Batch of 4 targets.
Target 1
Amino acid sequence: MNLEMVMQELETLGKERTKKTYISNGAHEPLFGVATGAMKPIAKKIKISQSLAEELYATGNYDAMYFAGIIADPQGMTESDYDRWMDAAYFYMLSDYVVAVTLSESDIAQEVADKWIASGEELRMSAGWSCYCWLLGNRQDIEFSESKISDMLDSVKNTIHDSPERTKSAMNNFLYTVGISYLPLHEKAVETAKAIGTVEVKRDKKKSSFLNAYESIQKEVDKGKLGFKRKHVRC
């Protein structure tokens, strides 16, 4: 399939209601409003195609950019490629659920995510923290430095309330993910979450969200989800 064929298929799958939902979360035109699950049949036909992924991402169409992440070759992308994708990721559903997800399946994931976290830019920071969520929720615990993750928990504790809004949300998710999916620091994550308490995330034209990682961790522990790992990160 080429670019034109994929764009035509995506357009036919678009739903006005889904489009409105995406726009309410920060997406803007052009977009069709395609549910992510509806993309799976096209993805099965293509499997992996970095060249097509690049063409789709460059369209600026939200649905095409999302689909690009599904068919991209994470190992075939360099740090500069990921930075270029981040430059075009204009809201959190692209930064955290397309770019960060794709990065998490590469060998340079932690190295790039660390730089983004230190960047001071809201969406880059959000993508960096989100990438660690995808990593910790999928890879084995032994693939991570316990002292490094511990230091990151300390950073969350010290800075979350003063961080940019989307970054707050991603940091809260990181705290929750460590508490559930990274067993060596489960106890520290719980204590950190308890100390942080409720985090307010302000949103444009919407009511604030109030996040509490401690309560979220406890709910999952009660369900027997401690140690949970995803089999796959991408669709």
Target 2
Amino acid sequence: MTVSWEELGWERLADGVGRCRLPGWDCTAGLVLGADAALMVDTGSSLAEGARLREAARRLTGRRVTHLALTHPHFDHVFGAAAFPDAEVYGAVGTDALFAPGGQGREALRADAVAEGLDARPAREAAEALVAVRHEVRGEHWLGLGGGRRVLLADVGPGHTGQDLAVLVPGSPDVLFCGDLVEESGEPQAGPDAVPACWPAALDRLLRLGGDDALYVPGHGAVVDAAFVRAQRDALAARFGVSR
């Protein structure tokens, strides 16, 4: 027996599209349902959190998640990915190299997770279990989920990181998952892997994808509109000294 978005504490955004705000880092995870497949957008900050997302999707649909889209390679968005062992995994070009076994990318993610407050053991377990990103998106890629539902995966970075992927779900309204290119609950965070000079242009690409009427889903915080994204683009340009 399936349940509603609201019964699970999720926010319904459009027909077959919802998201939740995970505890701790207030990170967004999204779910897009088609007739034949289900796409999870980001997977939380640990294997346990990923397992809870997997169970929520099962309760909503009675089916398993078939596809994952990882908006960018930060631990709070990707450390739950191994909880979906049979899913097809998508990320922006360059993501898979960061997840390579024994590589510095895994160690950097583990160290960042611990520095941000994740216990050492789950951080290590999640880093060691990171999945291969078999489908790297360069430019744009349409993904069919059945029943006429198609989503657009777009490599819109660099900006927040060198590998920023947006997920556009056409509908009424259009829904655009932005990852941490957009943040509502605080000032956008620019770590050592950010590319500040390119970040405002990445937001311009988001605005072209979503247009004036889309719902823009940030990586952290409440859903926003195009005006908010424009204001954040201008603020970032001023913050980083990027001429427009």
Target 3
Amino acid sequence: MSALGLTDVRDIAWADGVELIDDVAHDEKEPFSTVVVTPPMQGWALVVGPYFGLPFPQQTAHLTDVCRELSANFGKAQLFFHSEQNDGEAWLIAERGRIRRRWISEYPQLALGEPFGVERRLLDAYGITGKPEDLDPNSDLARDWSATWGQCWATTVAGESSIDPTTTAPDTVSTSGMLVAAAAPIE
């Protein structure tokens, strides 16, 4: 919590935390103000909220620095954004203070690193030997890939790289409560 600069930390029931994140995500005045932190899940602490939304350009550089710093301190740190309304996919994977991959489907020009794992396998399946950010955006191949992001969703990348919270079995999660905290404003 302190490494993230979170303040005003308090307990919140699991169901209330889930509802709060949905409310915050739709708050036009302060969408980046609040995060919810889960108890450890399969060795990972999940920090959830729009504050960590890579597809918001005003957040990208700051979140990249945060992820890099967290990975330097804890070995690994990852950020994921998945939209069930097909609004985009994003992930940021850092290990030992280095960014391995940053991909933001809506802003391919902000990509860093080399595709690996499921992303690389799906690119290969589409016949894309390089990186999706290097494709001519007007090409048929780029349009085919971007129509579904090659079905390379953030939840799939998360499941392979760490944990997919959408498929974690309920018996592996403490449903007793979470923490809610105020996020530091991005400068």
Target 4
Amino acid sequence: MTESQRVALVTGSARRIGAGIARHLHAHGYRIALHAHQSGEELQSLAFDLESERPGSVLALEADLRDVACVPDLVEQAVSHFGRLDALVNNASNFFPTPFGQVQPEQWDELFAVNARAPFFLAQAAAPHLRRQRGAIVNLTDLHATQPLRDHPAYSAAKAALEMTTRTLALELAPHVRVNAIAPGAILWPEQGKSEAAKQKLMERTPLDRLGTPHEIASAVRWLLDDAGYITGQTLRLDGGRTLT
């Protein structure tokens, strides 16, 4: 198979970092199964752009990853459409505060469903196809998987679970499938906004003194998929050095 025939399923790929990953992989020859839940318009727009660049290279899928029953179907639709699967990028995430003492079980379940459970069951569904291609998985975790974020205990715990999932899957799927993760620091400011004082405080804790970029995340994803042939079970902390402070 030529490189242009490789296929990647990228969850949460309609916007922001996920869209950056999808565009970058597509530019480097991948055919892409895009996924979104609540960003249907952005999903279709991105699919149109990429398909215009290379006809027959894109599939757009919509699914709610909180519904575990729909998770295997995402993989099957991608494989049915393209005939193979070489890479799974678990980028989809949800994020909201859950101050301790006020956390509701449904909040805990929602955060774990998207951030930890869905990546595990996507990997399980994708594993037979990835084994055939000697493919790879990249999970997007968070620096807060190891450095808890105040007022976000459930989110931090869910991302920590994804880090351990990365390591356990690396062991279970070796030697044919590699599994790694990226833990981003500050890449894009939250859409709900952040005060200038909070931005400044965060930059003071970032030795490289700047935001990262979606392109830097996307480049790291592609490196882990394509070039890091002797690396598995690892988390790349792409955070401008913030875990040093």
